[in-house]
Write a structure and sequence with these properties.
Oligomer: single chain
CATH superfamily: P-loop containing nucleotide triphosphate hydrolases
Distance between the termini: 24 Å
Helix content: 25-40%
Strand content: 15-25%
Shape: globular
Largest sheet: 7 strands, mixed
Number of domains: 1
CATH class: Alpha Beta
Strand order of the largest sheet: 1-3-4-2-5-6-7
């Protein structure tokens, strides 16, 4: 189900795992990959296509929640305000925010954590919202380059935080089991 305002968020008390990240980071591709579907979540090469909060029912047990992307999407300032308000509404006006078990914060492994990503992570830390990081598009790097990149993140951005970072590829399925394991651990 898609929600264009917080009043449309589902009211049933199912566990929720939210997916957050900048526009074009691969949230929809990751959700499709996790659910073994090709086009459940709409995928586009144009950033900023997700303009609603989308709830994907997984076997009546939990919702995977696709939040609107942030960052460089080519939209008017007014549209960006609506997106921001909708995402803020998810965290502030969600009738079942207590059912939010974790946020899966996606970061494009080729781009690295942007200022917007760091701002979102700091928000989650300050709000005491549990989260983990999925490094998307890892198939775009060689294994050596991927290892080096993740080590750089650990030694700079995430140093000493204990933040879980899972490399993922929607193309090859690398990391799929690890993301599901993280989700199942969080909803127990």
């Amino acid at each position: 189900m898609s929600a264009g305002n917080p009043r449309q968020f589902p009211s049933d008390p199912r566990a929720q795992i939210a997916f957050s990240g900048r526009s074009n980071v691969g949230k929809s591709s990751l959700i499709n990959s996790l659910l073994n579907r090709k086009s459940l979540a709409r995928v586009s090469s144009t950033p900023g296509k997700t303009i609603t909060v989308n709830f994907y029912d997984v076997d009546g047990q939990l919702y995977l929640v696709d939040l609107p992307g942030y960052g460089f999407a080519r939209r008017s300032p007014e549209e960006k305000k609506v997106w921001s308000a909708l995402t803020d509404g998810y965290f502030v006006k969600n009738p079942n925010i207590d059912r939010l078990k974790a946020v899966n914060q996606l970061i494009d492994v080729r781009v690295g954590p942007t200022d917007d990503d760091i701002m979102m992570i700091n928000y989650l830390i300050d709000a005491r919202v549990p989260f983990f990081v999925t490094a998307t598009k890892c198939d775009k790097l060689s294994p050596a380059a991927l290892k080096k990149t993740l080590e750089e993140w650990e030694n700079t951005v995430f140093r000493g935080t204990g933040i879980t970072v899972i490399p993922y590829s929607s193309v090859t399925g690398i990391g799929r089991d690890k993301v599901w394991n993280e989700i199942f651990t969080r909803i127990q």
